[in-house]
Amino acid sequence: MEVRLLGPVQVWAGGRLIEAGPPQQRLVLAAVALDAGRSVPVSTLVDRVWGGAPPARARAALNVQVTRVRQVLREAAAAGGGPGTRLVHQTGGYTLTLAADQVDLGRFRGMVAAGRRADCPDGERAGLLRRAVALWHGPALAGLEGAWVERVRVAWDQERLDAVVDWAEAEVRLGNARRVVGPVRALLAEYPLVEPLAAVLIRALVGAGRTAEALDCYATTRAVLATTLGAEPGPGLQRLHGAVLRGDLDPLQD
Fold first, then answer.
1. Where are the alpha helices (DSSP H) in 37-91?
2. Which SS3 state, helix, strand or coil, does residue 3 take?
3. Strand partners, 89
4. What is the pLDDT of residue 53?
5. What is residue 90's predicted lDDT score, i.e. its pLDDT?
6. For the segment 44-62, what is each residue's pLDDT rounded down to a tens digit?
7. Cβ count near 221 (within 10 Å)
8. Secondary structure (H, E, C), 127-161
9. CB-CB neighbours of 73 under 10 Å
């Protein structure tokens, strides 16, 4: 059984998608899956689901959603997800009895941490980070709304962007620049103000022999920063641009 949070909230079991229900039900599932294997206090769940405007009988409303999530878990077990996954009520909270690596966020973080070890060779690092990045299937908690959703989405998006940059840098050092150009360019289109994405795309384009496109990427990023923030690119991106202009950028070096 697997719970996915890095995209639409989904439950997979026995190789098939289990219907996880309407948005509020999926939000409760996400709220407990984030801390899989650990007790989440009822007060924390109420805050994650309703924020500062809980219903008059918030605990009763939460109990209704918990009952429905338990039904999803039973369906997952029947589909081959194993009988051990439950949403258990303990003193003051609920625990989803799921291992961290059965939640895509947990697997993502585990692979990213392994790939960032100082003693991890670039080949292994690139593979780990490539698999971690591939776990994303759109914006985190897609289709859900609320203050908690917005907070964690921003934080997780930053984790994703950092992982993509680390992956792309490792691939470029390995001489695989062409492999990263498309994915990084697509992500930069979504996050045009993220200078590290622009920087690694420029390195990849130079590594792929597409220097003119690298210069265009810098010009586009500079224009977006000026229009949106009224600012110039940071010193690092400016130095990178200068190296491209001089023709002395070695994309295989940090």
1. 42-50, 58-76
2. strand
3. 94
4. 84
5. 83
6. 999 999 998 888 899 999 9
7. 23
8. HHHHHHHCCCCCCCCECCCCHHHHHHHHHHHHHHH
9. 24
Quote the mean pLDDT of the chain.
Answer: 94
Alpha-carbon distance of 83 to 73, in angstroms, equals: 9
In contact, 13 and 1? CB cutoff 8 Å: yes
| 3-class secondary structure, 109 | helix
Q: Which helix (H) or strand (E) holds 23?
A: helix 23-33
DSSP 81: I
Q: Is the pLDDT of residue 252 over 90?
A: no
- The per-residue pLDDT for range 145-160, each reduced to its tens digit, is 999 999 999 999 999 9
Report helix, strand or coil for 211. Answer: helix
Nearest Cα neighbor of 46 from 68, 34, 69, 63 is 63
Tokens, residue 132: 């971690």
* CA atoms in the 13 A half-sphere facing the CB of 149: 22
